[in-house]
Amino acid sequence: MDVRLDGRRALVTGANSGIGRAIALALAEAGAKTAVNWVTHPEAADEVVHVIEEGGGTALAVRADVSKPDEVAAMFEAVDKAWGGIDILVNNAGIDGKRQLGWESDLDAWRRVLEVNLFGAFHCAREALRRMVPAGRGTILNITSVHEVIAWTGYSAYTTAKAGLSMLTKTLAQEAAPHGVRVLSLAPGAIKTPINKDVWSDPTMRADLLDKIPMNRLGEAEEIGRLVVMLVSDVAAYVTATTVFADGGMTDYPDFEKGG
Q1: Annotation says 158 is catalytic
Q2: In what order do the strands lie in the sheet with 59-63?
Q3: In whole angstroms, what is the distance from residue 220 CA to residue 26 CA?
């Protein structure tokens, strides 16, 4: 089956590196006009746009700190001006934050993670829905994490944001479904990207991580990109209000293979 997105207009937040970059490239390869959001490293966003255009696709780089509603609104207006609207939003932008136990956490740092990961996704979804609902079509895909269901010591802000994003997905999906708009989430597990190189490049840390994954390997960013294309396409037209996990079985609690 050849899954195509020709004629669709997409926006991917945090698309100048890692999983976001792979998603943007995959959407463009499938035929979607793709807006590449960035907040730092404009040269990386320009490189993604260049790769897309070299492949015959259409793309533009748009800067916005997703935690700031005014910047998000301006970003969507830029997409409107370029392409006349939006059909696909992928909320990918996110940060882990500094590792801190809950009772030792710096409140400003804790809040910043929620502002980017949860509020940022909401700001973007709100702008997208303001366009998609009147049009009677569109898809919003939120990138959550296995940590929407798996606790992670030292990262309470991150896990809280991802769990909250899961419920935000379900609620917005319920609101938007009667208007022909789908809202769903994709939860990656351990994906090999530059941001976690310190883990997968260290033999001891890599072995510990692989012990948590029944498939005994890290996922590739390109695998996430291909899955996103399928989920935002008409192939998944009856899928909404749920989270799809792409984690090699991490959420299958692999320690229980050894017994209860």
Answers
A1: yes
A2: 59-63, 33-38, 9-12, 88-91, 138-143, 181-188, 243-246
A3: 13
Give one DSSP letter per residue of 82-150, joined into a string. Answer: HHSS-SEEEE--------B-GGG--HHHHHHHHIIIIIHHHHHHHHHHHHHHHHT-EEEEEE--GGGTS
Q: Which of 155, 158, 238, 253 is catalytic?
A: 158
- pLDDT tens across 191-224, in order? 999 878 888 888 999 999 999 999 999 999 999 9
* Predicted confidence (pLDDT) per residue in 36-72, tens digit: 999 999 999 999 999 999 999 999 999 999 999 999 9
Residue 177's alpha-carbon distances to 29, 49, 135, 172, in angstroms, are: 28, 32, 13, 8
Q: What domains are there in the chain, each with its CATH number? A: 9-245 (3.40.50.720)
Tokens of 111: 């809040």
pTM value is 0.97
Extended strands (E) in the chain: 9-12, 33-38, 59-63, 88-91, 138-143, 181-188, 191-192, 219-220, 243-246
